[in-house]
């Protein structure tokens, strides 16, 4: 149990470190404030962003290892500590001071989300989902994402980060639910990997990654990461309750506590979005592309410019 807790903490740190590394390249990348899918191709060529992706992947792997040795009700809340790691690492990388308000808001998100995760039931039952249901679920997330993508061009950075990160979290929560179905069934039948749910899972992951990187691009990294931590598990738990038969908090008291915990986590996330801690590089216009190569000036035109300048100065 002790080793599982330590591994879960290491996983939370790796995920936070990877995301903080990704933020710098996402903010600095050329293009519009809300970038299309080619944005991911550009980021995939940046060594630091790739290193961040590897770090985040290592965090996910460590989280899964921790789950193999301790209950979900213990490991899932530990993963939430990654938010404080992310806030501190982002401030360190960008040479900014961590404000007390960020720590308070981050703690509110962590407490609310940990309480929510503890209140949802966790079953060992093997989940089932048809390809049609998976397609409808993924299509709904994509449709919502496209609407948010269009609207995001017209809103300010603070609400924009919440919109983009919420779609990213919903897509990644959907990915988690689909992956849970595939992995649980593949444990008894390896052919379960070769169903339509697998490509849907991969597509939802890429779609969620695009929105999450665009959320980092706003410069409100802490709010983006907090929103992901909140929306991802809530989406996964909601799909589990509604489509996989995993259930909701059973008693009125637990339902009220779950609602209060969710509101606390959401309130902390909104506070992070409104805090004056935006990455200053996000406010600068990104370069449209590489500078054109310098060309050798034509002597005749240079002489003409010189004559014009001299004439202008004499006037």
Descriptive report:
- By secondary structure, this protein is mainly α.
- The protein is built from twelve helices and no strands.
- It has helices spanning 2-28, 38-43, 47-67, 72-79, 82-93, 100-119, 131-152, 157-186, 197-217, 221-243, 252-274, 299-314.
- Helix 1 runs parallel beside helix 5.
- It starts with a helix and ends with a helix.
Q: What descriptors fit this protein?
A:
315 residues, mainly alpha, 0% strand, disordered C terminus
Summarize the structure.
With 315 residues, this protein is mainly α. It contains twelve helices and no strands. The protein has helices at 2-28, 38-43, 47-67, 72-79, 82-93, 100-119, 131-152, 157-186, 197-217, 221-243, 252-274, 299-314.
Unreliable runs, pLDDT <50, ≥5 residues?
285-315
What does the radius of gyration come to? 23 Å
Strand element count: 0
Residues in β-strands, percent: under 5%
Span between N and C termini?
85 Å
From the spread of the alpha carbons, the general shape counts as globular
- SSE order, as H and E? HHHHHHHHHHHH
How many helices in DSSP terms?
A: 12
Overall mean pLDDT: 80
Query: How can the largest sheet be summarized?
Result: none
Helix percentage: over 70%
Oligomer: single chain
Structural class: mainly alpha
